[in-house]
Amino acid sequence: MLCLPEALRLHQFSPLGLVKLCFPPGYIRPSSVSFFAVSLLTSVIVRGINNLSDARYCAGMGADYITFRLDPALPGAVTPALVKELSSWVAGVQLVGEFDSLPIADINALAQECNLHSVLLHKQRRPEELAALSVSALVLVKWIPDMLPEDVDNRFRTLGQHTTGFVMTDLPPQPLTEFQLAHLTEQARTYSIWLAPGFANGSVREFVEKVHPQGLVLEGGDEIKPGLRDFSEMEAVFEELEVE
């Protein structure tokens, strides 16, 4: 007989947005199952939402932000119509649009149309462009292992004057050294930095408790078929972050 966590790895959503659980053969279904937002150890951004399963699951698991790739130049870009449809089914999360090289005027128009709370920029913009944004901006930055600590600090300091935080999803080619980890911890105390779980050499929970980043950034995915999605990897991270 299968245990409940195994049965919960596949979640299915009805057209009404209600959660249905797909219980494998041999599992004795309980009389009722509740699905509600949980408290997490740190804030979570989930990127690249393109389906209702992801949107509702992430909102229910306590994510603070979900992002939509609204720039047509980005792989997996979605339409404003889809963003408005998906966001109508969720509550308690902030909507973020991801943009590459789209002009600021177009970004502002999409932010208004899709009721975005903020944007995540893939490319560095000039200060006057950032000042012209109608919503706050996060910036996607890369981890550069051989970059001098003072150069890293200078980059954060310069960009930090015009943005609300930095998102780092590119993982180091090698596990962080003690020196790198110590400097990353110092940076996290000074700037709002969001990190991918892969920065942790071991336990994600222990990493968060030691480094204290602003939050973690997870990646959304595609449905197996309409309404059906495997959340095994994402669920493992949420479980580590759950407040006991």
What is the straight-line distance between the termini?
A: 27 Å
| Derived structural class | alpha/beta
CATH homolog superfamily: Aldolase class I
Radius of gyration: 19 Å
Q: State the low-pLDDT regions, or none.
A: 1-35
Strand order of the largest sheet: 3-4-5-6-7-8-9-10
Q: Largest beta sheet, briefly?
A: 8 strands, parallel, barrel
- What percentage of the residues does DSSP assign to strands (E)? 15-25%
Query: What is the overall pLDDT average?
Result: 83
CATH topology: TIM Barrel
How many structural domains does the protein architecture include?
A: 1
Question: What is the CATH level 1 assignment?
Answer: Alpha Beta
SSE string, helices as H and strands as E:
HEEEHEHEHEHEHEHEHEEH
Shape: globular
**Alpha plus pi helix count:** 9
Based on the coordinates given, report the CATH architecture: Alpha-Beta Barrel
Topology record:
Elements: H1 4-7, E1 10-13, E2 19-21, E3 43-47, H2 52-60, E4 65-69, H3 80-87, E5 94-99, H4 104-113, E6 118-121, H5 127-131, E7 136-140, H6 149-160, E8 165-168, H7 178-190, E9 193-195, H8 204-211, E10 215-219, E11 228-230, H9 232-241
Parallel strand pairs: 3-4, 3-10, 4-5, 5-6, 6-7, 7-8, 8-9, 9-10
Antiparallel strand pairs: 1-2, 1-11
Key phrases:
244 residues; alpha/beta; TIM Barrel; eight-stranded parallel beta barrel; three-stranded antiparallel beta sheet; 11 strands; globular; disordered N terminus
